[in-house]
Amino acid sequence: MNNPLDTPIEFLKGVGPSRAKLLTSELGIRTWKDMLRHLPFRYVDKTQIFTIAEAKQSEEAVQFKAAVRSISMTKGRYKKRLIVTLQDSTGTLRANWFQGIKWVAEKLQEGSIYLFYGKINNYKGQLSLNHPEFEPFNQNSVASRALEPVYPSTENLTKFGLESKVKRNLIKQIFAQIKPEHIPDYLGPHYAQKLKLISRAKALYSIHFPKDDSALQAARKRIKFEELFFLQMGMLFNKEQRKARLKGAKFEVVGDKFHKYFKEKIPFELTGAQKRVIKEIRNDLGSGVQMNRLLQGDVGSGKTMVALLVMLIAIDNGYQACMMAPTEILAQQHYTSIREAMKGMGIHVGFLSGSVKGNKRKEILKLLKEGIIHILIGTHALIEDWVVFKNLGIAIIDEQHRFGVAQRAALWSKSESLAPHILVMTATPIPRTLALTAYGDLDVSVIDELPPGRKPIKTIHMYDTKRSELNHFLESEIQKGRQIYIVYPLIEESAKLDIQNLEEGFQRLVQRFPQPDYQISIVHGRLKPDMKEAEMQRFVRGETQLMVATTVIEVGVNVPNASVMVIENSERFGLSQLHQLRGRVGRGSEKSYCILMSGYNLSVNGKKRLDTMVRTQDGFEISEVDLQLRGPGNIEGTQQSGVINLQVANIVKDQQLMVYARDFAQAILLEDPGLKSEINRPIHSKLASLKNYRKHWGRIS
Predict the structure, then answer these.
(1) Who has greater pLDDT, 482 or 146?
(2) Are 617 and 456 in contact (CB under 8 A)?
(3) Among 16, 114, 691, 697, which has the highest number of CB atoms less than 10 A from its own CB?
(4) Which pTM value belongs to this model?
(5) DSSP letter at 484?
(6) From CA 427, how far away is CA 446, in angstroms rounded?
(7) Positions of E strands within 238-382
(8) Could you give phi then psi for residue 14, rounded to 5 degrees?
(9) Which residues, 6+ apart, have CB-to-CB distance to 204 below 8 Å?
């Protein structure tokens, strides 16, 4: 029998073809089922009735009972106004109507008692109520009152009469024509009982029409858990299915190249975190299953060293390795350092980017196809069809959030037999809760300690009035032979934002630090690539003492001699961006500084961001504060990797519930990896219906 919830929305009384078309275009509502999934975003509390005196004390909209004492009409300069004086035993209040005056005047009668709902305004010391909702007071109707849902809307919907009240009536109609069994319960009664959750049908009804706050909370708890459970179950199930289905090259030996480099070339002891992460990766590489692992670590934690050792394991097992970086500057930096590290090791390192052309490119491609190049470093040029490896065993992606899913997927085609192992790295620490959402289908390794001897960066917040003091400090650092970054949020003056900008700042610095005593580089996103590279290299070689830049230097510049990072209008930057910028200094042996410049007019969140930067250098702590300040929003990865939209759950506020939902999903998969048992069949059915799940993007890190 067909489920009535699959009925097109136009066949609901009061909708019809034109309104149905509007509901589809504005909200994606095509069927009765979609209409039930259109959830309220807030509720009007009409379960309580206040007095006028209590209503005057409230800052929110409230409901109160009052008699109409008088009704009068005044004619202002431009339009009429209806003034109604309301009264109860606690006082009087004036209600005003500027529109629909005739209709309101006909409905209200002096001496009668009504229920009014609205927010009381204070205008020039006088309290009044503008355009309140009202209805005749009836003791029986009041006894059955509940929280009233308010639905998201758009200008077009309101224009065509599809406001909240109409939607409420449409949803009431649907519930009147269906039975609880028509609403599929993908968790099933067994798990709902085990988790002490109400049924899905009851939750869906109660979230639209809660009789009281406890009913609403029970409904929200059920729907939150379900959203988070299927978000996690989708990723975990994908991961387990991928591991069962996809084989990877089995790296059985840790051979001569690895041991030679480890013993002869590393001048320091690896941190405990680096050793732990290498062990986790080695276990993956020896399992015969394709590795799909995220490596996250703070700025300077030694991720590149781990990546290099992992590539040596691949080479020891007869395979090639590649590393892809988002910018040519960063790729070139990796190439230079890795080529230097591989001297005397008998390992050929190649470089490929869009700027490598002609015979040079042909030669690299030839050596790569013949297997003579062991490690290829480059930009997204690595994923082009004409780049062919002889035997690619592992692909490492640096700053993975800069690449789209499809770009990363292209790396899979680079190995004819077994899919290469994938290691994606990020220097943006991700809170555990967000990692479970954005990267829940990956195995995650964390380097959570910095190498010994790395000096902390002194972070100072200075106001613009201290600019003279700042310039004296910069001058003293330059005289010591140090170099300085100065970062601006904009390239040119903005009429909307009264903030410092790069061009003005550059001119001011030229006057304060004139040639020939001082040299200044300037780098921003609108420079041509060759100009940008030339300016960057001047700074790297020490030919310029100051680099004025936009955030293009957030990733990809490693100048140990640069000891000061000045961030102008620092309140305009996000916390994670400030942390990344700070990580550009502190790479040498000298004491380093990060100076956060701002005006005095700071928002509460802006002040908290700057205070956090001054207080701590722990990237994971900073990322937690950042997540709390910004909320989940459209944080990178959540839409891409998620298999369900979160309507009620919030990954910041519901962290504990999400971890619990993930643990519950893992326990189910441990007992029934294929979700084939009778009790788990509804869960499998739900996963199969989810669009993103069917795409299998989770296979591509």
Answers:
(1) 482
(2) yes
(3) 114
(4) 0.69
(5) E
(6) 10
(7) 292-297, 320-324, 349-352, 375-378
(8) 95, 0
(9) 36, 183, 219, 223
